[in-house]
Automatic annotation (TrEMBL):
Name of the protein in question: Glycerol kinase
Keywords assigned by UniProt, alphabetized: ATP-binding, Glycerol metabolism, Kinase, Nucleotide-binding, Transferase
EC numbers, comma separated: 2.7.1.30
Organism from which the protein derives: Haloferax namakaokahaiae
One Gene Ontology cellular component annotation held by this UniProt entry: cytosol
GO molecular function: ATP binding; glycerol kinase activity
Catalytic activity: glycerol + ATP = sn-glycerol 3-phosphate + ADP + H(+)
Residues noted as binding glycerol in the record, renumbered to the chain: R84, E85, Y136, D256, Q257
Residues that coordinate or bind sn-glycerol 3-phosphate: T14, R84, E85, Y136, D256
Residue positions binding ATP: T14, T15, T278, G322, Q326, G422
InterPro entries per record: ATPase_NBD, Carb_kinase_FGGY, Carb_kinase_FGGY_CS, FGGY_C, FGGY_N, Glycerol_kin
Pathway involvement of the protein, from the record: Polyol metabolism; glycerol degradation via glycerol kinase pathway; sn-glycerol 3-phosphate from glycerol: step 1/1
Amino acid sequence: MSDETYVGAIDQGTTGTRFMVFDHDGKVVASAYEKHEQIYPEPGWVEHDATEIWDKTKRVIDEALSDAQLDADQLEAIGITNQRETTVIWDRESGQPIHNAIVWQDRRTTDRVEQLEADGKTDEVRQKTGLEPDAYFSATKAEWLLDNSDPIKLQRSRPEDVRERAKQGDLAFGTIDTWLIYKLTGNHITDVTNASRTMLFNIHDMEWDNDLLEEFDVPGAVLPEVRPSSDDEYYGTTDASGFLGAEIPVAGALGDQQAALFGQTCYDPGDAKNTYGTGSFMLMNTGEEAVTSEHGLLTTVGFQRSGEPVQYALEGAIFITGAAIQWLEDMTLIESAAESEELARSVDSTDGVYFVPAFTGLGAPHWDQRARGTIVGMTRGTRREHLVRATLESIAFQTRDVAEAMESDSGIELSSLRVDGGAVKNNFLCQLQSNILGTDIVRPEVDETTALGSAYAAGLAVGYWETLDELRDNWQVDREFKPKDPQNVEQRYGRWKDAVERSLDWARDGAE
């Protein structure tokens, strides 16, 4: 065994879990990945089995270390990054969830959010949390779980026992980072970035908000302690008698999009990145100022290091981008995601076809929970190549929607945009994005920036890296795409906005 040491990162995403090991240069030395089941109990409902996620997490850690012939003792720290907003509540005594986790994409609490708006609470929520009231966030999910979980799982016979046990502190609430920290260390902790996505946390006071807890009837006794994203005091250590057989500090955590911001070394105000995953999430660092959006963006916590001020960010959350490519596969229009590039290149245009992939409503800057997927402009001559190209264009157009809002809110013109995520392997999409934004698109050599960001946070906490400049030095450009051949971008963007209008407010009660 080598005496080299490394930092590990658990990247728990919407469709699966990856464990990656990074060296001091930020290079990947080990990686393993496993998917988990997507559970759809009813239309618009999305759940995960949190126990399955924990089992898969242990498995990928073991597999990555084994494949690279590394010993757990060679890990100086572990960082965690996670799908945000996805909510789990578990029994502290048994360690078992009381219900499947409710995923960020889930829309079952749409009516509850609309009631919140009808009650005139929207501005209060925005002011305190920086968020647009939406079923996307954790608050209404937690409320639903407490009201609807099966008391049999708590070995009780009455539904009211669930809420009673919550008030007594017998239950624990968390996003997936909290669940994994609990399973790894036994401690009930979240970080500032994940707390800021719950719609229960005041991002100005940096504490749980009593008024919001009362509004959503979430007892304070179920909440985790909130700590910095990179924590010199650690969240805890793994158990030497546990599956790793070693005591390893768990010292960093960030929600996946903030982790990508950190991994892309966007440490200065105005730095921006866009991650293309199941959805797309564009974040701009705004420094120590929590910029209030006037254009449908979210104000969120970007990251915090121990003993330092919170760094804020503006965020544009696009719910469906990479998932639209998956839909093309599901519909057998393509055999693999890689085929989308070839097919899109095979035609000169979409032939007037526009696809708005609002499968779970529209996020920023539209925020329409009842929007639905819409294809317009088809003729008898429309072929699958046109629809595939329209799908890639929808990703780029949605990003422009967000970029224009971000420039308006921040007063900063985007000169370049750092990109990451699975879809940026598609050179056609990257060039298309540059053309439609009129901005340089910069792709780094290490595109697993979400995992890298959480590794950096943990490594900084334990002294594996000393300064942010070390991390900046690690960041290397793979390829840069500059705007060219715009092909009537402004006219096409205008038609895109027309198509979005047709998707809005579609899913009405009794109309689906």
